[in-house]
Automatic annotation (TrEMBL):
Protein name: Class I SAM-dependent methyltransferase
UniProt entry tagged with the keyword Manganese: no
Any GO molecular function: methyltransferase activity
Keywords noted in UniProt: Methyltransferase, Transferase
UniProt domain Methyltransferase type: residue ranges: 47-124
Keyword tRNA-binding carried by entry: no
Domain of life: Bacteria
Pfam families cross-referenced by the UniProt entry: Methyltransf_11 (PF08241)
Family matches, as Gene3D superfamilies: Vaccinia Virus protein VP39
SUPFAM superfamilies per UniProt: S-adenosyl-L-methionine-dependent methyltransferases
One GO BP annotation of this record: methylation
Organism: Nguyenibacter vanlangensis
Length: 270
């Protein structure tokens, strides 16, 4: 398919290469999932767009999953539905098919954000929500000092939060989601108080931004963090984070409620 990687990945990152052991590091955190569950309300049929390996898919509802990457589809647990090979910008469903829709850690991969959001609205007759990171506050993390190249990549890739909210329509809430200290979903900020975790190449690989960082810059990050942990420099500066139960970082849930299907809007504005 035009514009897709060999394994079907439709975004800028090739999950056929970086997603092989994704689920070893990216397990849904129940405290984050609770925010999604509350926002879903009494929705029974749910579409998961960019579903990946199934993180944050509710087990107690009828879920349809869409995921273009074969590598990610292959890692879905056996108790989850088989994901459909499709992209956000061209969802193969009729208008208003689903009570609700979710998109978690995926909108930064969509090639045409406007088209993807319009499709999300079109096929959903109830709440729609996006779990993502706010690029405007990524500087809150200690990684901004240790891995500026990676943070710059993240800031470029994550869409503006207000733009996403506008794309979901009126009555949309932007909810700040605290990141638990022992968060089981290993996105970069999840290790805010456990810096040693990011010395693991697998933990870095499970965050697609690292695949855009030059090898020498990544090596410099590892060398500096290793040295500063051994010498106590990191703890002198950021050690209080090891005792902080949650971190107010960039994680946001954008929740729109009771959307009216708008029909196909590909190529049009919000």
């Amino acid at each position: 398919m035009s514009g897709r990687h060999e394994d079907g990945s439709a975004g800028d990152a090739n999950y056929g290469v970086i997603g092989t052991h994704y689920t070893a590091y990216r397990q849904p955190d129940p405290r984050i999932a609770a925010y999604i569950e509350r926002a879903l309300g009494d929705a029974r049929t749910v579409l998961n767009i960019g579903a990946g390996a199934g993180s944050y898919e509710p087990r107690d509802r009828s879920v349809t999953a869409v995921e273009p990457s074969a590598a990610m589809r292959a890692q879905r647990p056996a108790d989850l539905p088989v994901a459909i090979d499709a992209v956000a910008e061209a969802l193969p469903f009729a208008d208003g098919t689903f009570d609700a829709s979710i998109a978690t850690f995926t909108v930064h991969q969509w090639r045409d954000l406007r088209a993807g959001l319009a499709e999300m609205r079109r096929v959903t007759c109830g709440p729609a929500m996006i779990l993502t990171c706010d690029p405007a506050v990524l500087h809150r993390s200690w990684l901004a000092a240790y891995a500026p190249d990676m943070i710059a990549v993240e800031a470029r890739r994550y869409p503006n939060i207000d733009m996403l909210a506008a794309g979901l329509g009126p009555n949309t809430q932007i909810i700040s989601v605290p990141i638990p200290f022992d968060c089981t979903d290993g996105f970069s900020e999840a290790y805010y108080g456990r810096p040693e975790m990011l010395l693991d190449p697998g933990a870095r690989r499970a965050n697609s931004a690292w695949s855009f960082v030059a090898p020498d810059a990544e090596a410099a990050f590892v060398a500096r963090l290793t040295c500063d942990l051994e010498d106590g420099v990191w703890d002198a500066r950021y050690g209080a984070l090891r005792h902080q139960s949650a971190f107010d970082g960039s994680l946001r849930l954008i929740a729109g409620s009771h959307l009216a299907p708008v029909g196909r809007m590909v190529g049009k504005g919000f």
